[in-house]
Each structure stands twice: as C-alpha cells, then as structure tokens.
C-alpha cells in the first residue's frame, strides 16, 4: 500500500531533539464532535455492572479479568474516587468513568474511522513504520473533581517491543490546561532510555523496579486547545502537576507563562507519543473535564512483541498498511 508521509524533515528533527512535536489542526471539529457524541452513546448504553476501577498507583491490586480481557473489547473503568463508603456511585456514571478501552479502534465504527484514517496512516509512514498495528486505544475522561492521578510512567513499559517501536497518538477532545490536568514534559529527556518494565506474570502485573524520582522544576507544562496532534517520543518524561490545580493564571510567574506557551496548540491538535515516554498525571480537582482519545501503535516488521506485556491477544491485530 502506497502511503505518503505528511511530516517535514524539520518536524522530525524537532521530535528527535525535543522529544515531542505539536501538529496543529490535525483533527477537524466534525471529527472531534463525532468521537465525543459516540462515546456519549456508549456511556448511555453502559449498565455499570461490568466495570472495574482503574488506577496507575497500584494496578496490581485492581487488575482482574475485566482488565486483561479489555485488550480485545470495549470496556469501562471507573475512577478510584467514584464510589462512596456505601459502595454506590457518588454521581452519574457519565461523571464517574475514568476511561474506556482498549479496542475502540477495532470494534466501534466511529472510532475505527478516525483511527484508520489516511492522515493517521500518513503520520505513521513519516515515522518510518513498515507494518504498523494499533495495539490499544483509550477514551480518557479526566473527570472534574475526581479525575484520577496518573503517576510517573513510561508508556513503553506497558507496550514493549524488541527493538522498541511503540508510538502513541493522543487527541485532545477538550481544552487541557494546568487547571484540569494538562501534560507536563521534560524536554530532551527521551534520550535517557527506558526506566522500567510493567510485567504480567502468574500472580498478576507489577513493575520490575521502582520508579526514579524527578525534579519538578524540570517539567514544562503543555496546555492545549480541543484537538491537536502532539508527537511525543517514547522516552520523554511527562506528567501532570497537582500543585498548579489551585493556581490561577494571574498567580503564575512570568517564567511559568513563558514555559507554558513554548508549545502553542490550536483546536484540533493531537498528542503523539513514541512509547518510551514517561508520563504523570495528578488528579483533576477542577470543575472541568479533560476528554482525550489515544492510540498506541507498534510495528510488526523487524521487531518482536514482548510476551511479558500485559496485553496477550487471542487474535493478532490487522496491520494498518504494509510497505
């Protein structure tokens, strides 16, 4: 299949040097609306009896068959703080779900249409993919008030290939700010390599080593408007910082404001991750949600899927194209 890449040499060089790249106006307003509307329909149809709690703080304790089987299903995961002491939801299910995954791109026609669109394929072709497959997809809500914390991690820890080939596409469906949990990154940190692996064994899943400690002053905030394609190299360290959930724009220092606008993004931009990327997300304690749709892609040409990964599919995914 003849796929033409849509990234310039300058963009690829920027991604290589900084570890991330913003692609403005990647998705249209109509595409964003279609994805959000469809997720609303899926949530309305969801009865709430077949979901588990999602946590990156201690996934070993919350992992169950629902989590494992979600690799080839459209499954729903509640926020950690969605339930009261009585075991009942504190608010509506629409405001209690953490994410939906991990096979939206395969099983839902609306999400599949975007995930397999020509512009996504062209983007991957620019990255040098020969036989890419989408290994997982997620609709992430980051709910107001209870949107769960995502502790520092590298995505390639979870979706490892030998050699590493994993790339993520993170489509902002709503504005992401320092108030509702935007991403923060350490520019250039992708050159330090993979820190640890997330291993699935007989007793469940666990990391093979502790997470290192990072200096918060090294992180740069990445605020985005609804939309946008941001390419993030897999080794890049990124997070979201809770301390600024209570800081207004007027309270920020000039230095912080300069750093925030280092990465300008318009409506319809996507975050792009190559999976050695370490990210961190604190709770969303604001009154605003922060919806996003993410894809994770690996190559199947000249590399091997690690058997210790949490995803153990019964049916191999179809390649997006073969070049």
What is the fold's blueprint, element by element?
Blueprint: H1 9-18, E1 20-23, H2 29-45, E2 51-53, H3 59-62, H4 65-69, E3 74-78, E4 97-102, H5 104-107, H6 109-115, H7 118-126, E5 132-140, E6 150-154, E7 161-162, E8 167-172, E9 183-185, E10 198-201, E11 204-207, E12 220-222, E13 229-232, E14 238-239, H8 254-260, E15 270-274, E16 278-281, E17 292-299, E18 304-305
Parallel strand pairs: 2-3, 13-15
Antiparallel strand pairs: 1-13, 3-4, 4-5, 5-17, 6-16, 7-18, 8-15, 8-17, 9-12, 9-14, 10-11
What is the CATH level 1 assignment? Mainly Beta
- What percent of residues are in strands? 15-25%
What is the CATH superfamily? q2cbj1_9rhob like domain
Mass-distribution shape: globular
Number of domains: 1
Helical residue percent?
Answer: 10-25%
Biggest sheet details: 9 strands, mixed
Mean pLDDT value:
80
> Care to count the β-strands?
18
Number of helices: 8
Q: Gyration radius, to the nearest Å? A: 18 Å
Terminal-residue CA separation: 6 Å
Strand order in space, largest sheet = 1-13-15-8-17-5-4-3-2
InterPro entries: Phytyl_CoA_dOase-like (IPR008775)
Protein name: Phytanoyl-CoA dioxygenase isoform X1
Keywords: Dioxygenase, Iron, Metal-binding, Oxidoreductase
Organism: Tripterygium wilfordii
